[in-house]
Structures are given as structure tokens and as C-alpha cells.
Amino acid sequence: MEILASIGSALHMAFAMFWEILWALILGFFLSAIVQAVVSKSEMKRLLPDDSPKTLSIAALLGAASSSCSYAAVALARSIFRKGANFTAAMVFQLASTNLVIELGIIMIVLMGWQFAAAEFLGAPVMIAILVLLFRAFLTPEMVEKAKRQADRGIPGSMEGHAEMDMAVTDGPLVKRILSPEGQTSISHYFVMDWVSIWKDIVGGLLLAGALAVWVPTDFWKAFFLASHPILAKIWGPVVGPLVAIASFVCSVGNVPLAAVFWKGGISFGGVIAFIFADLITLPILDIYRKYYGWKMMWFILATFYTAMFGGALVIEFVFQAAGWIPERADTKIVEAAVTLNYTTILNVIFLILAAALLIRFFRTGGPEMLRMMNRSQHRHEH
Q: What are the domain boundaries of the chain?
């Protein structure tokens, strides 16, 4: 009975977190779908020919306008690399597409506070700048050529269909494109596709966060994150944050609830940011890099990404400390104790109605058949 009660408490915590961020998830994916519906992926490939500052800035902006799913981002980065985009620009696009997207910022504000969202959006460019410097110092043309040959083999990873799908409406003024029947259909399809691509990660992250919040004592986290040694903890947090992310398997939006648990447990502010940055070096993602680019490039990506994530998070830690923007840990409350009739519930109802409208349009405009075709195509690739 005690075991069942413990499991029930963990599930209740996971559901409470889900209820807290539900409206933010729907809003984030809706805004992301609008952007994807008016930004052509073929245009992305054309705009990334080199690693100049202008091109890398465009890569970051296009990444921010893309889907937040880590697997889809990695697949799309390979796709644009194979079709002529610069490798460094493709990697910058990939980083931006999971660290500068709208839905991630909204959820961080709702669950953790504006300071964490600000740190994410200010820290990501710092991380990207460090990564570009590392690539220019250590990435050789021979490595890129070898990775290109491996990428051209077309070995499937995950979310290939999502990466290749391009339903952007590009004719006419922006507002007209969004409000047109074609635009509304495209928005509904991207909205559902993003949910299909990432729901497992969201559920996994919530279940893991709920279990850790209930089952692991706070004293363990304080000891693990060296909370009793404030100066050392500022360095240790960005070091261990990506390592925890690598082992947790949770990507992008799904790791925010887990980050909230770690923050409450004692990890440093920079450690939280490094943990969230590291969704692109989890073990499943690393295996995809191996398939896409080969063993050598996989290790190179791991080493450079880790270094950039550590460096970016550490810079943000000290900048926010100097500015007095790091929130008090004691003021952080992961979720409400129970679901009540408050602004969260009202917003959830409103955005669930929006989600239902998008889902109805998805079913009425051939969405399910599109998903089946993509799944069949992916199945053939795997064989």
C-alpha cells in the first residue's frame, strides 16, 4: 500500500505540473505552427551558404522560428546540410531551434519565472558564439567532407518525415497568408505534427520530474549539487547539468519540469540553464549523430556542444548574479497543491478550445492520411 501511495503521489505531481503548463504548451505550439506555416524550409536551405556572422544570425532566427522538438531539429539540420547549407550554420540552426523557440520561453516563465526564460534567451546566443569559435578553431574541411559523405548515405534517424515536411504558404501579405484557408490548414497540420513529435518527451519529462520530486529527498539534491558550498556550486552546476541531461533522455520542452525540480533541490542558476541547453546531447540524440555524421563527428559535436553549454551557462550565472536577477530559491513553488478554479484553469479551458478547433481542422483536411503516409515512408527508410 505504501508503494502504491508513493506511485500515486508521483503521478499526482506529474499531472499537477502538466495542468500548470498546459495552456502554455498549447499557446507555444500554436505560435510555432503559425511561424512554420509562413516560413518555407526551402528558403532556410538557400539562406545558409557559409559561416559568416550574417548567415549565422539568419540560422539562429530561422531556428527560433522552427519546431522545438530536438529530434526534428537534428533531422532538419542534416537535411539542410545535405542540400548545400554550411555545416556550422546547420548546427547553429539546430541549437536555436531548441533553445530560442517561443514555447520553451512561455513554459519557463509559467513554471519557473521570467528570470529563467531571460537567461535562456540571453544565454543561447552566448552558447552559440562559443560553439562557432570552437568550430572555427578545431573543425577541419576533411571532417566536414567525411560527415557530408556519411550524411548523404541517408541513414534514417528519428522524425525524418517531420523534418522534410514543408507546407508553408508563401504568397501574399503575412496576415492574409495566416488567415487564408490554406494558411489555417497548414497551421493546424504543423500544430498537430509538433504535438505528435514531442508528446512522448513531454510525458516522460513530467513523469520523471514527478517521481524525483516525490521520491528523492531534498537533502540528496543539496548534497549532489553542492548547495552547501555556494562558490563551488556555481562551477559544479554548469558542469553536472549537461551530464544529468545526457542521462535523463528528456528533450527540449520536456526537461523544463525536471529543471524546476533540480532548482528547488539546490542546483545553481547556471546549472539549470546548462541542463536545459543540453537537450541536444542526450544519449538517443548522440546515437543519431553517429548515424548521420559518423563516430568522429559525433564525439566532436559532443565535446564542442558540452563546452559551449558549460561556458554559456557560466557566463549567464555571473551576469545575472551581478545584475541581481537570480530569484530566491525559497520563493519557488513547482506547482499548486491541487487543481482549483483559478487563472490557470481558465486559461487551460480557453486554449483547450483552441486546440480542439485546430484538431477538427486537421482531421477535416487530410491530416491523418498525411501522418500515415509519413509513417509508412519512415518505416520503409528504416528497412
A: 2-382
